[in-house]
Amino acid sequence: MKQFIKLPLLLLLGLFIIAGCSDQENEEGQTDEQENNAEETSAEQEEEEETSEEIDESSEGSSDNNDTHVEHQEGLQMGETGIVEDNENNKYEVTLNSVEYVDVVGGLDSEGDTHAVANMTVKNIGENTFNAENIYEPGFGPDGELQSSLNSVLMDVDNVEQDLLEGEIAPGESVTGDHVFVVVEKKDNYLFIIGGSGHQIKTYANWEVAESEVE
């Protein structure tokens, strides 16, 4: 009788042992799987972060090249270069090379006054091709008495000796030419401007010109 009782007990004990081992194996298997999944997720996150950083760096570089704002420049001197960006998204460097007095231009007498011929070089540093004659409203004269360029009138005159600023400028190219202004009265100091504080322009540049520098 005792033998019959021991046999079921032994069978139950064996089942418990087998079940315990199986549970332990399942737990170990699940733990290993969870660890593997965690490692894979971490690796994927690192790859995504690296990709995101590369995109951000690339975007920053592109922004630096195309969208960098240039502050207005005032007090430039003869021979120095200023950067101008007009409202047509044309961006260019302007170098004031020289200024000279000329009494008669294209047969037009200044009626007792004289003319100032400003020679400049314009380099296209933007992305658009534009005509140099369309640079933003050059002006010349004493501060508060600036005169507009006569080029729009002189373009239709045949016997102009000056090489008026004009011609298509592709990105990276430059053109050199003249703008002509009436000088009502000679002064000790002048301003040459491409735009100014009272103009609707993204970036303007102004040059100070002493009368002693005018040829």
What does this entry look like structurally?
The chain is an alpha+beta fold. It has helices at 2-66, 151-154, and strands at 73-76, 81-85, 91-102, 104-105, 108-109, 114-124, 130-131, 138-141, 147-148, 168-169, 174-183, 189-194, 205-210. The protein has a five-stranded mixed β-sheet with strand order 1-13-12-8-9, with no helix packed on it. Strand 4 and strand 5 (108-109) form a beta hairpin. The protein is elongated, with a radius of gyration of 39 Å. Mean pLDDT is 81; it is low at 58-66.
Total strand segments: 13
Q: For the terminal residues, how far apart are their CA atoms?
A: 135 Å
Average pLDDT taken over every residue: 81
Backbone structural class: alpha+beta
Assembly state here?
Answer: single chain
Largest sheet: 5 strands, mixed
Spatial order of strands in the largest sheet: 1-13-12-8-9
Shape: elongated
Q: What are the secondary-structure elements, in order, as H or E?
A: HEEEEEEEEEHEEEE
Question: Helix tally?
Answer: 2
Query: What is the gyration radius calculated from CA atoms?
Result: 39 Å
Percentage of residues in helical conformation: 25-40%
User: Could you list the spans in which at least 5 consecutive residues all have pLDDT below 50?
Assistant: 58-66
Percent of residues in beta strands: 25-35%
Q: In brief, what are we looking at here?
A:
This protein has 215 residues and is α+β, with helices and mostly antiparallel strands. It is built from two helices and 13 strands; from the N terminus they run αβββββββββαββββ.
